[in-house]
């Protein structure tokens, strides 16, 4: 008989505080877990030795963005002694995703769309669990289309919402509809907004992010190969989204929120807007402008990691100081 996960068991599947939860009893009875798309496994790799110190996981669509992010991180945080040179892709024998590590930070590409993000996250969450990582924060660093915002504005997501502007995601499981919450961690979102303002040089706003299953019709574009609605109908829909609190549109935040929530991970989404969708559909700014926009969420997240790590270092020093009494 298949094990059934009760709510109690789900809560107890990670009884040690801070450990990453895998709410799937089957995984806990497997002799080996092959993380196929990452090219890693529990019997072939010493996951605690390779990843046990990870505190931050940052994910974004493309491999080159995540490699660039690790480069910026190493420079700004002087992490060069804890990273291999050249920076090594840890998904060595599988080219579906790319993954890089610098000190306590793991950066991975997730490709485009919910299915691709979902596969990466299932395996990444199990990786963190098998590696016995504690107190991990996960952040998506992405691009998006904005609504009524100047291009280049960075949006920190309060919640992912679906195409009806609801903070939920529907997933078909065994042919039945399962609806799950897509709310993100409010405290982390506030910290991310503060980091954006501290970095400066661009606007950072807090708002809802609509996650769609398509870049063209799904995002009410007029420039796809197929389109069945008018310019006016497009604007009615996008204005309704805007009025419902949607600041930007992208394609992965819903499943990202759901899987991180179910695993007890603090999760945040930080996406720059490449264009204002109320003004047009084509992403036509010059390459160097788009590349600079795409770096903005990276700088913001580096600032969050810098702040958090210096807080941890201060705590460690305070605890080691003579006369410090254990709590
Ligand atoms: O910039 P990234 O993170 O790749 O994400 C956004 O860009 C892609 C579409 O161009 C979608 O995957 C969307 O979510
Ligand atoms: O309009 C846009 C731009 C980037 N990514 C999206 O999903 N939509």
Textual characterization of the structure:
Pfam families: PNP_UDP_1. Residues 93-306 form the Nucleoside phosphorylase domain. This is Uridine phosphorylase. One of its GO terms (molecular function) is uridine phosphorylase activity. With 327 residues, the chain is α/β, with parallel strands linked by helices. 36% of the residues lie in helices and 22% in strands. The protein has 9 helices and 12 strands. The protein has helices at residues 7-12, 25-28, 47-51, 63-77, 114-130, 186-199, 231-243, 253-262, 287-320, and strands at residues 34-35, 40-41, 56-60, 99-102, 105-109, 137-146, 154-161, 168-173, 176-181, 204-211, 246-250, 266-276. A hairpin with a 2-residue loop joins strand 8 (168-173) and strand 9 (176-181). It is globular. Mean pLDDT is 93; it is low at 1-14. Bound molecules: 1-O-phosphono-alpha-D-ribofuranose and uracil. Residues 60-62, 112-113, 142-143, 215, 250-252 line the site of 1-O-phosphono-alpha-D-ribofuranose (R1P).
User: Judging from the principal axes of the Cα atoms, what is the shape?
Assistant: globular
How do the SSEs run, as a string of H and E?
A: HHEEHEHEEHEEEEHEHEHEH
> How many angstroms separate the termini?
46 Å
Q: What oligomeric state do these chains adopt? A: single chain
Please mark out the parts with pLDDT under 50 across 5 or more consecutive residues, or reply none.
1-14
Chemical compounds bound to the protein: 1-O-phosphono-alpha-D-ribofuranose, uracil
């Amino acid at each position: 008989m298949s094990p059934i996960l009760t709510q109690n068991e789900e809560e107890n599947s990670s009884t040690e505080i801070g450990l990453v939860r895998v709410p799937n009893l089957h995984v806990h009875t497997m002799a080996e877990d092959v993380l196929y798309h990452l090219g890693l496994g529990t019997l072939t790799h010493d996951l605690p030795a390779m990843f046990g110190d990870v505190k931050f996981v940052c994910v974004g669509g493309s491999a080159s963005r995540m490699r660039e992010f690790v480069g910026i991180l190493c420079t700004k945080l002087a992490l060069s002694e804890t990273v291999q040179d050249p920076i090594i892709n840890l998904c060595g024998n599988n080219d579906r995703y790319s993954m890089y590590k610098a000190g306590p930070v793991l950066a991975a590409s997730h490709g485009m769309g919910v299915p691709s993000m979902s596969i990466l996250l299932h395996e990444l969450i199990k990786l963190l669990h098998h590696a016995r990582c504690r107190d991990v924060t996960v952040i998506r660093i992405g691009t998006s289309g904005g609504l009524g915002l100047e291009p280049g504005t960075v949006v920190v997501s309060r919640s992912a919402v679906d195409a009806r502007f609801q903070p939920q995601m529907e997933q078909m499981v065994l042919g039945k509809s399962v609806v799950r919450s897509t709310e993100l961690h409010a405290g982390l979102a506030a910290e991310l907004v503060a980091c954006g303002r501290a970095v400066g040089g661009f606007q950072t706003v807090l708002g809802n992010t609509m996650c769609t299953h398509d870049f063209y019709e799904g995002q009410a574009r007029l420039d796809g190969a197929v389109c069945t609605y008018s310019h006016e109908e497009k604007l009615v829909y996008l204005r309704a989204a805007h009025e419902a609190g949607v600041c930007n549109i992208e394609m992965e935040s819903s499943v990202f929120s759901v899987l991180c929530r179910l695993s007890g991970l603090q999760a945040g989404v930080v996406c720059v807007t490449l264009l204002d969708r109320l003004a047009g559909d084509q992403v036509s700014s010059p390459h160097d402008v788009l590349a600079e926009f795409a770096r903005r969420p990276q700088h913001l997240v580096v600032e969050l990691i810098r702040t958090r790590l210096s807080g941890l270092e201060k705590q460690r020093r305070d605890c080691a100081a003579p006369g410090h009494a254990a709590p």
